[in-house]
Specification:
Layout lengths: L1 E10 L5 H9 L5 E9 L4 H4 L3 E7 L2 E7 L8 E10 L21 H7 L1 E15 L4 E12 L2 E12 L4 H8 L7 E3 L4 H9 L20 H25 L3 H20 L10 H27 L12 H13 L4 H8 L2 H15 L9 H7 L3 H19 L6 H6 L1 H14 L5 H31 L6 H30 L7
Helix pairs in contact: 6-7, 6-11, 7-8, 7-15, 8-9, 8-11, 13-15, 15-16, 16-17
């Protein structure tokens, strides 16, 4: 078995690869790789996050079994087994028995195997950084059921132990049109074979336990955020739409919240430049949120306010506002830009190399090595006390909206440390405050509607009708949010 640690970079057709890659690939001989991937009709291997293939290169055949990715971001780490094979079908008995889930009937699994998709590409391969990094330039296609996806990508795979050398090679490669990419060829093949449905995203809940140190939980939480960040961007690339952009925004927000949550252990200077660039991307993604709010206003031709005299005028203003925001094509260009991908690679590097350690002295490093439970208890208690102090009875809707960041901080604590406590208690704590945040989002939609109306020259009658309607909506929302507030604050602390 080996651990395959690699970084994938997708290359747009617009990139002149002859000029860009020639200095690196000088002398590399092309090799033609044909791969057949196998699974059961019900996709059991894919469900186990395994990939099984037979590769033919220059007449020689090899079977490979790849296990679940240990990362989830563009920098993947996957255990894999490579073994010789005779014929055109895999031999599962050749792999170690411990790789299969307990109770697997290997003979039955073998009998059900069938080819699902194939890849066919030409590879140019060179060793760089004194043999520490293998760079592969692949061009070809993934084929499943008559459907085809192009392959045009770089893979940088670690051959040595110094991960920093991989980043040293990758950073100069990031130009416009070169995009950090998380989906393997196998993942794209399975997506094609399954009918190109929506890609599922991982949960923003890191897997942790009480034996882990403060630093281990920090690293796991940041890696979890990076995983959904990459998954959402990959989903957008395959099926452009607003929902993946919202998921990406949530992942980015969680990444920033985790940096803030551990700010007492990791100096802000260690992540200052990274946080600034995250703010830039968050500002871009806020336009996707605005687009979704406007789309909801426009849904069913303004069903929520269609009884207003000015309903048609509001719809026109909403359409004009939409035109002034970034559209799907603009986000596609954004994610292929050099700045966006340098940010993502910087975030991956920050987490993978633990860059915060460079700015810590021995006492600070000792704090990072302590078990997580005391820190988790302290942060949860502190965040909850902040809610009790600032979320008081009789608040207005605007007051509630102003408390959004405190609620999000508490939810970040709940989400990050949930694995240390009873799942039901941690889950219940989050549910009420999620309802509260849904109310905040509805309040923002109402405020957006009010801003659209402010662009109109309203008569006194229309102005009174609008203000009356907004007042009733706001009051109803305050009542619902106050109920969520009370339920949330009345919950017994589960972290002692």
């Amino acid at each position: 078995m080996a651990i395959e640690t690699e970084l994938k970079l997708r290359v747009a057709d617009s990139v002149d690869t002859d000029q860009w890659l020639q200095p690196l690939l000088k002398g590399a001989k092309p090799r033609h790789l044909k791969n057949s991937y196998f699974d059961t009709p019900d996709g059991r291997l894919a469900g186990w996050r395994m990939g099984l293939r037979i590769r033919e290169v220059d007449g020689e055949r090899e079977q490979t079994l790849k296990l679940a990715d240990l990362s989830g971001s563009a920098l993947s780490a996957r255990p894999e087994y490579n073994l010789p094979v005779l014929g055109d079908r895999p031999d599962l008995s050749a792999f170690p028995a411990e790789v299969w889930p307990q109770g697997t009937d290997l003979a039955a699994l073998q009998a059900e195997l069938a080819p699902v998709f194939s890849t066919d590409f030409v590879r140019h391969k060179v060793l760089l950084a004194d043999g520490q990094v293998e760079l592969c330039w692949d061009q070809g296609e993934v084929v499943a059921g008559g459907q085809v996806l192009p392959i045009r990508e770089l893979e940088l795979e670690m051959q040595g132990e110094d991960l920093k050398r991989l980043f040293d090679i990758a950073e100069p490669l990031l130009i416009d049109g070169v995009q950090c990419f998380g989906l393997s060829k196998a993942a794209r093949g399975n997506w094609l074979a399954k009918g190109q449905g929506p890609l599922s995203l991982s949960s923003l809940s890191p897997v942790i336990d009480r034996q882990m140190s403060n630093e281990a939980v920090l690293q796991q939480a940041l890696a979890t955020a990076l995983g959904q960040w990459q998954e959402a961007e990959d989903a957008f690339l395959l099926q452009p739409g607003w929902q993946p952009l919202l998921a990406l925004g949530q992942a980015l927000q969680y990444f920033r919240q985790v940096l803030s949550l551990f700010g007492g252990l990791v100096p802000r200077k260690a992540s200052s430049e990274l946080r600034q660039e995250c703010q830039w991307l968050a500002d871009q993604l806020s336009q996707a949120e605005a687009q979704v709010r406007l789309a909801k206003l426009l849904g069913s031709k303004g069903g929520s306010f269609k009884k207003l005299n000015i309903a048609e005028e509001l719809l026109e203003q909403a359409k004009l506002r939409q035109q002034g925001l970034m559209d799907i094509a603009a986000f596609t260009r954004l994610f292929a830009s050099e700045r966006a991908n340098r940010l993502k690679l910087s975030a991956i590097k920050f987490v993978a190399l633990g860059r915060w350690r460079e700015r810590l002295d021995k006492p600070a490093l000792a704090e990072l090595d302590k078990p997580i439970k005391w820190f988790a208890d302290t942060q949860l208690a502190k965040a909850f006390a902040e809610l009790k102090r600032h979320l008081t009875k009789g608040m207005s809707l605007a007051d509630y909206v102003d408390q959004e960041s405190r609620v999000q901080r508490y939810l970040c604590c709940c989400r990050t440390f949930a694995g240390l406590y009873l799942d039901e208690a941690a889950g219940n704590a989050q549910e009420q405050w999620q309802d509260f945040l849904f109310g905040v989002e509805e309040a923002k939609r109402l405020e957006g509607l009010s801003q659209l109306a402010a662009r109109l020259d309203l008569s006194e009658e229309d102005s009174e009708q609008l203000e009356g309607w907004l007042a009733r909506k706001r009051q109803s929302l305050v009542l619902a949010m106050d109920q969520s507030r009370q339920l949330g604050l009345n919950q017994v602390a589960y972290w002692p």
